[in-house]
UniProtKB/TrEMBL annotation:
It comes from Endobacterium cereale. This is GNAT family N-acetyltransferase. The lineage of its organism: Bacteria, Pseudomonadati, Pseudomonadota, Alphaproteobacteria, Hyphomicrobiales. GO terms for molecular function: acyltransferase activity, transferring groups other than amino-acyl groups. Gene3D superfamilies: 3.40.630.30. Residues 9-172 form the N-acetyltransferase domain. InterPro entries: Acyl_CoA_acyltransferase (IPR016181), GNAT_dom (IPR000182), N-acetyltransferase (IPR051531). It comes from the Bacteria. Keywords: Transferase.
């Protein structure tokens, strides 16, 4: 992994020292509302119990995002390799970074790296259908809505009844949308 830079962000490979910032995100009820009904009580829930409690600072596919100007923690971005030519894009940002284009900026850097350097042919992302902010990020990246699933949960999060959406971007479409 390499360090990536955007106009306002530095995305560096995550380190164990980033774990406190990552856990801090999970303690914010608004950040976690589409994943866990709100804040995560790390004294009651272990990371081995639920997949969204990640990263912890040693994952090879996660970048920690910090602002260029003051090095303040913004959040994390990941490009998880599902297969040699397929990766899942993910991101989680602090609330003070919402609605500023930082999610699109950071995710766009990973998409560019994924297609331009890592050799992926398809990058996908998913979220709850009601998570309009995250869906807008995917659309700004050029991703296309390809599916809505309706999984059944024993104790569903409000909004689950609207489904979970999947967006995808193919390398050829990414190349076609890149400026010359």
């Amino acid at each position: 992994m390499i360090t990536l830079q955007t106009r306002r962000l530095v995305l560096a490979p995550c380190q164990p020292g980033d774990a406190a910032d990552f856990i801090g995100l999970e303690r914010d009820a608004e950040v976690m509302r589409f994943l866990h009904r709100g804040a995560v009580d790390h004294n009651a829930v272990g990371s081995q119990d639920v997949s969204f409690l990640m990263p912890r600072g040693n994952e090879s596919y996660v970048w920690t995002a910090r602002r260029k100007d003051d090095e303040a923690f913004v959040g994390w971005f990941c490009l998880y390799p599902e297969a040699p030519v397929l990766a899942e894009l993910g991101y989680r940002l602090k609330r003070d970074g919402w609605w500023q284009g930082l999610a699109t900026e950071g995710a766009g850097a990973l998409v560019d790296w994924g297609f331009g350097q890592a050799g992926y042919e398809t990058i996908f992302a998913g979220t709850m259908a009601v998570n309009l902010g995250s869906r807008r990020v995917m659309e700004k990246l050029g991703m296309t809505h390809v599916a809505t699933d309706f999984p059944v949960f024993d104790d569903p999060i409000p909004g689950t009844e609207e489904g979970e959406v999947r967006y995808e971007l193919e390398r050829r479409d990414w190349q076609a949308g890149k400026p010359l």
